[in-house]
Specification:
single chain; 386 residues; 3-stranded parallel beta sheet; 10 helices; 37% helix
């Protein structure tokens, strides 16, 4: 749809497609309209109201601006003598110090080569784009994944080193597991040729305690988790049949509520359980990344209930799943006696019982792919003094 922004776009107080989806997605739509459809000379993003930016939303915004900039310069090369029809863009009123730090270290200015700050309290992992097409060769793909994993793990380890701390070897392994598994998952579920990651860590001293907020986002565009399983080409028919059985049980028990909890919500949750994958059995030689990743997240987070900040969110299609420590991973024995880990978001540990819809929910907005966002508050108890 066509907006008349007159070249001015106001960034909301909370710019987050996770916590404030209506306003934030509206900004993204307005941005595309202003840059590509409306007839304006420049587009100005006004941050006067903005107090909080979610890293995944910033990444999404930057991917769009980066693509737009590349498109614009390509047009300029082709039509050298024509007047530049596409507007320039810029930002004003970035008054909040936290927002300034984020934007100028990993946001658009840093990504587009406009400029970036060096702040001694910040460890940045600027937006990386990984191109999957070159890696059809399995060996190369694994090598690439190992490099990427190491790169991201180094970012975390450097973040902590600034606080005079290092992860215990066990937690370091946990971390590499987390990252490696997410990257594999992102690659397997992606139907387009790119995945993206971005990280941002800032240390702070608060009420006499030294802590740091670590953020990492990995996202890809393409089929959502649900679409991948729903597709007639999905090679893993066993899981699909099990999902269908589960849907029937939910339908009988009247668990599905349109607009609140739908089949897609259930299947996306089911896909995270151990041993569930949309890849064919032949090419599947490992435990399910998602659950190990969630477990590692809780391991690093530690069990302190006081932490209301650490959380992990998965957004895929019209489903949002929130891990904030309210529910834990349980172990269950399957029909053939194997022990499986499950994350059911309920107190029974049984996926046939309805999950808590505060944590597993249907969203009105559709995310065209999968976004995984982790925010971890690292305190002294998570780390071993160097």
């Amino acid at each position: 749809s066509h907006y008349d922004s007159n070249g001015s776009i106001v960034i909301p107080e909370k710019f987050s497609i996770i916590d404030n989806p209506e306003d934030s997605i509206d900004v993204i739509r307005k941005t595309i309209s202003a840059l590509l459809i409306e007839n304006v000379d420049e587009v100005i993003f006004n941050y006067a109201k903005c107090k909080d930016i979610d890293l995944g939303t910033q990444a999404l915004f930057d991917i769009i601006l980066k693509d737009y900039s590349e498109f614009k310069s390509r047009c300029a090369r082709i039509q050298r003598n024509k007047h530049d029809v596409f507007p320039a863009f810029g930002a004003i009123n970035i008054n909040d110090e936290n927002i300034q730090n984020l934007i100028w270290s990993v946001g658009s200015p840093a990504n587009l080569g406009i400029g970036e700050i060096q702040n001694k309290e910040i460890e940045k992992f600027k937006l990386r784009t990984y191109n999957n097409t070159k890696g059809k060769d399995e060996c190369k793909r694994m090598e690439r994944k190992d490099l990427d994993t190491t790169e991201i793990a180094d970012y975390v380890i450097n973040s902590l080193r600034r606080m005079g701390k290092k992860l215990t070897p066990k937690k370091r392994d946990d971390l590499c597991t987390i990252i490696g598994e997410i990257l594999i998952n992102a690659e397997e579920h992606s139907t387009t040729n790119h995945r993206f990651s971005i990280g941002y860590f800032k240390e702070k001293n608060q009420e006499g305690s030294h802590m740091g907020l670590f953020r990492l986002v990995i996202l890809n565009f393409g089929d959502t988790i649900y679409e991948k399983f729903k597709s007639p080409d999905c090679p893993n028919k066993d899981f699909v049949n099990r999902m269908k059985e589960l849907s029937d049980k939910y339908t009988k028990r009247i668990f599905f509520i349109p607009g609140k909890f739908e089949e897609e919500t259930l299947w996306t949750l089911y896909a995270l359980q151990e041993g569930v994958t949309s890849v064919s059995k032949e090419s599947y030689k490992r435990g399910n990344g998602s659950i190990r990743f969630i477990e590692s997240f809780f391991n690093i987070k530690g069990t302190s209930a006081s932490d209301s900040i650490s959380r992990m969110t998965i957004l895929s299609g019209r489903t949002k799943i929130l891990f904030d420590g309210k529910y834990c991973i349980t172990e269950r024995q399957s029909r053939n006696g194997e022990i499986h880990k499950a994350m059911t978001f309920n107190n029974t540990g049984n996926i046939e019982d309805k999950p808590d819809i505060e944590c597993v929910m249907h969203t009105n907005n559709y995310f065209p792919g999968t976004l995984i966002s982790a925010e971890l508050l690292l305190n002294d108890d998570d780390l071993k003094q160097i």
